[in-house]
Amino acid sequence: MSNLADQLPVLLPRILAWANAQSAHILRQGDPLKGAGLTLASRVGVSHPERIRTMTVPAVPAPDDPELQRIAIEQNLIGPNTDGLTLGYGIFIVDGCMTPRLVAHECRHVYQYEAAGSIEVFLPTYLKQIAEFTYERAPYEVDAREWEWVGL
After folding, report:
1. DSSP states of 28-77
2. Handedness of CA 100, 52, 28, 88 (dihedral sign)
3. Which of 16, 86, 113, 151 has the CB geometry, 3.0–4.6 Å to 101, for a possible disulfide?
């Protein structure tokens, strides 16, 4: 396994380029939250739930860049068990996985992006947390899991 913390300074420009491109794609072609989804987003703290777009996909897309793809899999960021991925106001959700609990979790990530101010500020912090604590124990992930109850 690679040492993510050591690689981040070099990888961040490519990670951010990929994340921004994916976010733009979801925002252009995704569906706005409606009804209960808007309510969940508000309840987990999102300031602008009307900006959120979701895109249902067969699997969360991994970066085309082989190095980024490898790291995403190694760090448990994207893989066969990934049901959703949030990039700013854009959320990928795997087909058949759209549950209120997952929507609450992913919307909490939207809240975290809002609090950070941008993808460029949120992602480096998020990835440093994963490098330090692992995906499961990263503070942003712990926080998002703690808000899943809103969707139950």
Report:
1. HHSEEP-HHHHHHHHHTT-S-GGG-EEEEESSPPPPSSHHHHHHHHHTTS
2. negative
3. 151
3-state secondary structure at position 85 = strand
Q: Hey, how many other C-beta atoms are within 10 angstroms of the C-beta on 98?
A: 16
**Contact partners, residue 102, CB within 8 Å, separation at least 6:** 83, 84, 93, 148, 151
**Span 45-86, pLDDT tens digits:** 999 999 999 999 999 999 999 999 999 998 989 999 999 999
Residue 107's nearest CA partner among 79, 137, 147, 142 is 147
Q: What is the pTM of this model?
A: 0.95
